[in-house]
Every structure is written in C-alpha cells, then in structure tokens.
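Researcher: Quick test of sequence recovery. Tokens follow.
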C-alpha cells in the first residue's frame, strides 16, 4: 500500500504506535478505545504512515498497562469488542494502512485461566508445569528460589498460598508479581501461542510486535545471577526454535506479514540471529533510541546498526520514543541527552523545551532519512514532551509502585494526546494533560505550516515518494566536524550538531528542512534534505 517498488512493505515502512488507552477516546469515558482509533484513521492516513502498531488491547486487570493479559483472543471491554477490532482492521486496510498488534508471550496475567488453574491444582500438578513454580529456600521454604530481581523492582518470585491454606511454592515473574512467566519448554505453551497467532491472522492483522522477545526461554537450572552473558533469563539459544516455528505460521498465510521483536540483546552478532531469514523480519534498534544528541555517537550507532543487519539481509528500524521511554523532546532539551544508558530513567532534570523541540524536529528528519523502517510514537508528531508532574496518587506504572516512588515510571510518556475537539461533557482523561498542551493539539496545529504536525506530515510524504523506493541505498558523505551527511540515492541528508551555522553544498536544491535557513546557511540543531544532483 502506497508503494512504488516491489520489496516487502515492512522493509521501509513508516509505522505509527498507538497506545490505546491514550490515543483517542471515542465514548467520552476518559480512556482511549477502539472507537477512538477508528475515528482517527483519517489523521493517520493524512500524516503519511503506512501502518499502525497497537499496544495490547486484550482483557487485562491493567497491573502493567495491558501487558498483563488474561485472554489473548478477546478485547478488553474498556477498549471495545472483538467485532469492533475486526471492523478497525478492515477500515484501516480500506484507508491503505496495515495493522500490527502487540503479542505478549513471556508472561500473562495472574488472572489468566491457566494460572488460576495452576494455583488451584496444587504442588506437582501438570497445570503448574506451564509456569515456573519452584520450592523456596530456607528451613521452611520462606526464601525465594534464587536471587533474580524483577525489572520493576524487588524479587522476581512470589509465594502462593496452597489450596489447603498453607504457604507454598514460589512462581517466577520477571516483571510485576501479577505477571507470571510462562515455561516455554512446555509444548502446550508453544502450541497455544501458535494458535493465538492464527486467531489474529485469520482476522486480518498484518503482523505482531513481540514484547520482550528475547526473554521467553530461561536457563532451566535457574542459576544465581553472575556476570554471565547472556543472562539466564534472556537471549537463550532455545528462543530461536520458537521464532522459526512462528515464521512458518505467518508465512503460511501467503501475504506480507511481519514480526517486530523487542530485543534488548546488546551483542550485535547475537542480535542479528533473531533476524535470520527464517525467524523475525525486524527488531527494534534501542541503541539508536538511547544515543545522545551527538554527531559522533549517532554515526557510531548508525554504522553499527547497518553492519549488524547486513549479514542477515534484514532492514534496520529507527525509533526515537515509545510507550516505555522518556519523550525525546524532553530528553533532547536536557544537558545529558542520552536515555537510560545505566538502565535507570532520569526524572526532574532541568529541561529547555524550546531546544528539545528544535532538536526533535532535526532528529525526526535525520531518522526518516535512514534506510529501513521508521517508527512514530503517538504524539511525536505534535511535539509532546514528557509529563513529569503527575500527582503520585494518579500514577499507575508498576515501576513507581515497586520502587517506592524512587523511579517515577513511564506514565509521563503515556498521557493522552490532545486532539482539541473533545466534548466538554466527556470525562477527565485517565492521566492529566498539561494545560499548555492545548496549543499543541491536532486542531491547533492542523494547517499551520510551521507546526510540528505539518512538519511531520510533509516529511513522511516526501520520505514515501523519494526514499521508500530505494530502501537500501546509503553512503556517508564528507562533512565538517560536528556535521552528519549521507546520500540515500535520491536525497542527501545533512544534520548540523555544532553551535554555528554551516554552509550547504553549492547549487544544492533544498527539498526539506527542519528549521528555516539563516542567510542560506544550515543553523545549529537543524537537518536538511537536499535533492541529489542527477
């Protein structure tokens, strides 16, 4: 859809992430829903993206924003119905948009039928073999089976009360206690998820974003944490057999489906294994997201990314923000522009939002020019910043809860985006929007040629016309210190990271620019696209 060349659409697609609770509220209850997504499909079509990725919409107690799934074959009532989801998929296709949905295979909700059956069945039961139940250490089993720590803080183990009322075994949860990890060595787990894939493929979805894709297989010995790489809970070799099976499932539908893996593996060679031709199609490029606003650092990441993908022939992905990370307008306005390089989010650091927005525009244009697929997180196109002053009583991220508030969590990037046309009688959004966001609403920015929204739309449409048809073309160009310049075949991209304006090549035809030129010079923190001389 919207393509001139014959390579698979996902190799160069622009994909828009929808976090459904916060995208658009269709029924006025303060929470985003499928009705809201359906009503806003024209926004996505006009923006110029090729697909939307929808974060989990399944039934869930919402202990982790929907990533604690209680039923993989239905829709949470807060979002709508399965019939509405099917209608959305059809309407998106009618608008020229493909649909990718989240799948969460590492863990489920503690309210999933399988887990409730496991707890009720008691020690040694077949039902418990689908999860990681183990006896505790200590004289009475009062200590967790090992020292693994949860991503959200605290131990990775919770003890159950057995059917007879006594303290019993412990189960593994790498994330929240309400998210028990599946045991992927169990054949029923593997068969169940291949069935879930077929369920949604039968309903027309075009692909899946795989949550924590490298975490599914654990070292069965459950060893204590050491400096070993890979860790005993991630990037185990056995995970590749799972994805080879999944690839057979999606390929059997004989359409251009796609898997997008959330893979945090740092080793480039091990990362590339997930992208072999019989496994996943693409995986997220987190080193790029984490990189500071710095010419040398970004060039190093770009080189490393392209080098890692080349041996397996997979396209790179490029992303600046998502539902788990600090919005890049805020990050780029700080003195330290990197993201969580030590594994911890930064909150409350001084920020220059004007500078952050300028750099965000330049970064967007740079990112869209790179070869591969590009992701836009909802609100990026509006220039939204991280909301850091949410009252503690309203925060819902389990990270905030399990760290005792030491880490404020991810709520700040999940605040509902402003449309500017809400019914005055509608309920208050589930997370409060800053009053200043009224000036950044879709309504306020539409048709303003200088707005972030119009900038994104123009950029994406030029990208589709000029760059998507040459998805693999890329070569660096000579440039002064502090400047990145590369050729994409039809377009040259130049970004100025220095504190002074720089000259553009003589006789260059300016195609697009993130900020106005100054006397013909490219200002600091600005990206330009130039038409390559024929």
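Model:
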């Amino acid at each position: 859809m919207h393509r001139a060349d014959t390579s698979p659409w996902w190799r160069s697609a622009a994909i828009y992430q929808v976090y459904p609770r916060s995208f658009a509220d269709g029924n006025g209850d303060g929470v985003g829903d499928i009705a809201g997504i359906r009503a806003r499909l024209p926004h996505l079509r006009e923006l110029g993206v090729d697909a939307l990725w929808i974060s989990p919409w399944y039934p869930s107690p919402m202990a982790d924003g929907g990533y604690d799934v209680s039923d993989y074959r239905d829709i949470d009532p807060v979002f709508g119905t399965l019939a509405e989801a099917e209608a959305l998929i059809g309407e998106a296709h009618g608008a020229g948009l493909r649909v990718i949905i989240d799948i969460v295979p590492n863990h489920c909700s503690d309210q999933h039928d399988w887990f409730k059956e496991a707890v009720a069945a008691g020690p040694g039961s077949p039902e418990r073999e689908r999860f990681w139940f183990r006896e505790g250490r200590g004289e009475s089993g009062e200590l967790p089976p090992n020292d693994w720590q949860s991503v959200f803080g605290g131990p990775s183990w919770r003890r159950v009360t057995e059917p007879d009322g006594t303290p019993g075994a412990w189960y593994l949860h790498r994330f929240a206690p309400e998210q028990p990890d599946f045991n992927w060595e169990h054949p029923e787990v593997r068969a169940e998820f291949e069935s879930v894939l077929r369920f949604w493929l039968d309903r027309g979805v075009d692909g899946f974003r795989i949550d924590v894709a490298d975490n599914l297989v654990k070292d069965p010995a459950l060893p204590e944490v050491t400096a070993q790489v890979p860790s005993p809970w991630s990037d185990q070799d056995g995970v590749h057999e799972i994805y080879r099976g999944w690839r057979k499932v999606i390929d059997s539908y004989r359409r251009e489906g796609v898997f997008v893996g959330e893979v945090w593996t740092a080793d480039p060679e091990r990362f590339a294994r997930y992208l072999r031709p019989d496994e996943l199609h693409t995986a997220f490029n987190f080193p790029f997201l984490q990189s500071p606003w710095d010419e040398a650092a970004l060039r190093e990441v770009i080189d490393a990314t392209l080098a890692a993908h080349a041996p397996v022939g997979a396209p790179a992905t490029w992303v600046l923000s998502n539902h788990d990370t600090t919005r890049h307008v805020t990050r780029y306005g700080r003195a330290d522009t990197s993201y969580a390089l030590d594994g911890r989010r930064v909150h409350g650091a001084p920020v220059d939002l004007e500078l952050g927005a300028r750099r965000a525009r330049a970064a967007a244009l740079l990112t869209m020019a790179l070869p591969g697929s590009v992701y836009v997180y909802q609100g990026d196109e509006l220039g939204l910043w991280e909301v850091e002053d949410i009252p503690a009583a309203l925060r819902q991220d389990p990270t905030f809860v399990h760290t005792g508030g030491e880490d404020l969590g991810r709520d700040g990037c999940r605040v509902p985006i402003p449309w500017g046309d809400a019914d005055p009688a509608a309920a208050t959004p589930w997370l409060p929007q800053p009053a200043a966001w009224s000036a950044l609403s879709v309504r306020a920015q539409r048709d303003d040629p200088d707005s972030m929204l119009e900038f994104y739309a123009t950029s994406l449409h030029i990208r589709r016309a000029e760059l998507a048809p040459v998805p693999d073309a890329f070569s660096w160009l000579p440039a002064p210190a502090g400047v990145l310049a590369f050729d994409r075949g039809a377009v040259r991209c130049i970004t100025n990271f220095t504190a002074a304006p720089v000259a553009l090549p003589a006789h260059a035809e300016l195609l697009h620019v993130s900020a106005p030129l100054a006397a013909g010079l490219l200002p600091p923190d600005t990206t330009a696209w130039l038409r390559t001389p024929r």
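The radius of gyration is 23 Å.
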